[in-house]
Amino acid sequence: MSQGVTVIKIGTGVLTRTSDATLDRPSLVRLVTAVAELVASGTKCVMVSSGAVGAGVAALGRNSYPEDVASRQACAAIGQCSLMHIYQTLFQNFGLQVGQLLLTKQDLNDKRRCQRVQDTLEHLLAESSVVPIINENDSVCVKELSVGDNDMLSARVSRLLGAERLILLSTIDGLDGPNGSGLVKEVHDVKDVESFARKDSGKFSIGGMASKLKAVKYATESGIETIISNGRKPNLLADIVAGEPIGTRFYAR
Q: What are the binding residues for ATP?
């Protein structure tokens, strides 16, 4: 049933202010509005949302990620509550409900658990008024706190659902070419652009372009078109779904 599903991964930098990692409510309002409009147009949307750890860092008054895993997990436990409350409140303005799934790699690696995840998502997507929101269960898992996991999580969820497309929303317009050559608009083989990736990441985010390209490779090799675009411009989501040349589009192989 999942043909036509659009999976949207939202990076921490899209959801939080760069200065202090507090949740950026105006950005969240714009994002939710754009997703709600997609749903109203008949597009089934699944969101994979980062931001929980960053939100928890801010709630505890820290100015950077803690070094130890237990502190990060505590931040995730606190921040996830804030993040989901905001999503629920904002989507209700459009007559939509949210359904939360917190997943681990084990949930996707074990055949029976994976089938339950798929069944749950498909039942949620069958409800026209529900937007599933997925995050890693960072408050109890260790491996899932490694760099770039939500990029790969979104790719794996896309494959599980047989999604039509995956949109990775970050704070950049797409993949930049080498030596200031500008935005790369189309890519037919990820291997051709892997060397373009810088290995940086934001102060309150995990991962970077290298992480995204790894997820893109997984998704496109699974037959899923993938787009990297700027989450600070969520009004462009409908145009992306319509196939307009926005961001960097990686064609399914």
A: 9
Give the whole-angstrom CA distance, residue 88 versus residue 184.
Answer: 35
Q: Which residues contact 218 (CB under 8 A, 6 or more apart)?
A: 152, 155, 156, 159
- Quick one: how many helices (H) and strands (E) in the chain? 9, 8
Contact (CB, 8 A) for 9 and 151: yes
Q: Which residues are annotated as a binding site for substrate?
A: 50, 138, 150
Q: What are 189's two structure tokens?
A: 């083989």
Q: pLDDT per residue over 15-70, tens digit each?
A: 988 776 678 889 999 999 999 999 999 999 999 998 888 778 878 888 777 878 88
- For tokens 């409800």, the residue is 127
Q: How far lies 57's CA from each of 21, 96, 117, 214, in Å?
A: 7, 29, 29, 27
Binding residues: 9, 50, 138, 150
